[in-house]
Amino acid sequence: xxxxxxxxxxxxxxxxxAVECGGVAYHCKTSLSTLAVLGKVGGEALLYxxxxxxxxxxxLFGFAxxxxxxxxxxLIGVSGVGPKAALSILSSMSPExxxxxxxxxxxxxxxxxxxxxxxxxxxxVLELKDKVSSADxxxxxxxxPSGGVGLGTGNAGEAVSALMVLGYSQSEAAAxxxxxxxxxxxxxxxxxxxxxxxxx
Length: 200
Description:
The chain has helices at about 30-40, 65-75, 85-90, 95-105, 105-110, 120-130, 155-165, 170-180, 185-200, and strands at about 5-10, 15-20, 25-30, 45-55, 55-65. With about 200 residues, it is an alpha+beta fold. The chain folds into 2 domains: about 5-65, CATH 2.40.50.140; about 65-200, DNA polymerase, domain 1 (Orthogonal Bundle), CATH 1.10.150. Helix 2 (about 65-75) packs across helix 4 (about 95-105) and helix 7 (about 155-165) packs across helix 9 (about 185-200). The radius of gyration is 18 Å and the shape is globular. The chain starts with a strand and ends with a helix.
């Protein structure tokens, strides 16, 4: 229905933003990650949207990029995960880090999100592990084969490949890289992952 909204940001708080387009302001619930890049009220904003239909009414959700939107749609497809929990997870980690956590089975990292306990995090990993792929998370970790740990094409993917050359298995490498900050340079990702693996 609504693919995206581009217009003037007229409102924002800690949970939502409103973008005026054609004289109508669309109020979207969103993540802290998206709010961090939206800019100031009065500036131009673009949100990729998802309309959530429920018995009590309609809720519009908006995200700064397609990767985050893809993660959100995957998350609310997990039994027991509602929009509130999905936004909490996306406020705590990037789509790339989420993909690595799911692919490597690192549910503990997902419990860092407020309101997400171990049981729910384990369910997220269990139900989404076979679905994490480049088709599911646009702009996230690309090249993730369905049903397996991915190598990716960004810094994280290069670091995973390098660790595999050093003799670590794909799952060990992905788990170790998943515990690092994905925005780090490849060399720093590898150093951090090797330290993590040495402590095991």
